[in-house]
Amino acid sequence: MLPALGAVPFLAYVGVFLLYPTLVVVGGAFVDDDGALTLQNVRAVVGSPYLEAFVRSLQLSAITAVVGAVLGALLAWAVATGDPDGLLRRVVTSASGVLAQFGGVTLAFAFLATVGFEGLVTVALREQGIDLFAGGAWIFELPGLVLVYTYFQIPLMVIVFLPALDGLKPQWREAARSLGGSAWTYWRRVAGPVLAPAFFGSMLLLFANAFSAYATAAALVSQGAPIVPLQIRNLQTSEVLLGQQNLARALGLGMVLVVAVVMALYALLQRRTTRWLR
Amino acid sequence: MRAVRYSVLGVLGAFFLLPLVAMLDFSTRGAPGGGRDFTAWTSIADDRALLDAIAVSLQLSVLTSVLMLVLLLPTMVWVQLRLPKLKRLVEFLCLLPLVIPAVVLVVGIASLYSWVSYFLGNSALTLTFVYVVLVLPYAYRALESGLQAMDLRTLSEAARSLGAGWGTVMLRVVLPGVRAAVLSAALLTVALVLGEFTLASLLNFPTLQVAINLTGKRDAALSIAVSLAALLLAFGLLLVLSQLVGRRRTARVAEPLAPSGGKA
């Protein structure tokens, strides 16, 4: 038997269910309804309203990546300094796993129950005479998405950053101290530089995560399409006027390009991380 | 330092607990002035569509785990032993879904799915095919770390020289050797499938997450009760698992599903 035949089932499967759809997206972005080459779709994507959606998607991803990375790193630090086999750590890592990976639709409902029109916080504040929605229905717009996304970005940061914190060797701290360094010096000159690649790498991962996310936004925002994934939903679910299909593909191609650049940077940083940690 | 630690835990703990408490409050609100009302919770068990969707999602998670293992594990073993030149390609293909958001995959795969339902019927279980693609990166990493940890070449050559066929090698040498990795790959798959919304929703198949979302359109209290139940169940499951398999392995179980992850 030819050894190469052993890889055929896998390659055939991936060819059909991964490479073919990818090629459909990439190819479709550059053709019109009759299959003739055109730049029309791409030109539409860099014009209104799709360009605005991309800008908002990038803003949403950037804000929640930075906030999520900072708060998530703090939480990971608070957990890492505790008992490695303790209850706190198990509870936080399990909860993070659920919120970061399983949440989706359920998180949208969680925030509707909290700061929706009849949410717990909304009602409590209303009784104090404060109208949470004086500035409009922000929960269904970009600020609402930022809030809900942060709720799953922080846990994701805990999951990806905790191993890096665990990789800090106690000997480094002791060495810094025995050479007369303060705690500040240790963080500034030892732990900080060692953790920096992991921190920024995790931040990029968070960015890609928010940029690709769909479920939470889809469940929360049923009207309008502030971000790119929701624009794709609109094109995908509207009883297709021909040509919309290829426009959706061009939007998809744009998303893939953004995520690919971010993940390439992530891979670069990852290589630096592994030099010192794990 | 200790004060900072406790205030971080306190503030973030409150931020994470508040929405959960709000869900409990919202789903048990009775008539104004009345007491708590648990109708939403008890009606979960009466909701036919929801129960069907749960059954579909559970079947999907089993089917996807099995197909993923059957497709991926023998290929990875075979490539490592006999086709080392293909290793980079297989790795690249397995990690490729990380840069293709689920919502983009839908755009490319929608036309393919009209063929799939033409041949296999319009069943939600056909989602298995695309879910296998979705879990490839995480399953690959889990299995890869398991395969790296065992001396595959020596063990398989020993088995072969004693007369074992490749099937025996796979089932009786490789599989027991990577049991932990197989388990964690399967767990990641189950978690991802149970949480998946994007593909199911845009391809119009009634899975758990799709059903929860639809419920939200007609009965807010019910949908919030189901959401909270799903979150708590998933949390309980992970917590028990972390207790069972110990800290070292949970770190792997909880490895990042990002990007696109469960929210995919």
- Tally of helical segments of chain B: 12
Helix content of chain B: over 70%
Task: State which percent range the strand residues of chain A make up.
Answer: under 5%
Classification by helices and strands of chain A? mainly alpha
Residues in helices of chain A, as a percent range = over 70%
CATH superfamily of chain A: MetI-like
Alpha carbon gap, first and last residue of chain A? 41 Å
In CATH, the homologous superfamily of the largest domain in chain B goes by the name MetI-like
* Quaternary organisation: heterodimer
The topology string of helices and strands of chain B comes to HHHHHHHHHHHH
Shape, principal axes of CA atoms of chain B: globular
Low-confidence stretches of chain A: none
Major sheet of chain A: none
Order of helices and strands of chain A: HHHHHHHHHHHH
**CATH domain fold name of the largest domain in chain B:** MetI-like fold
Tally of distinct domains of chain B: 2
The global form of chain A is: globular
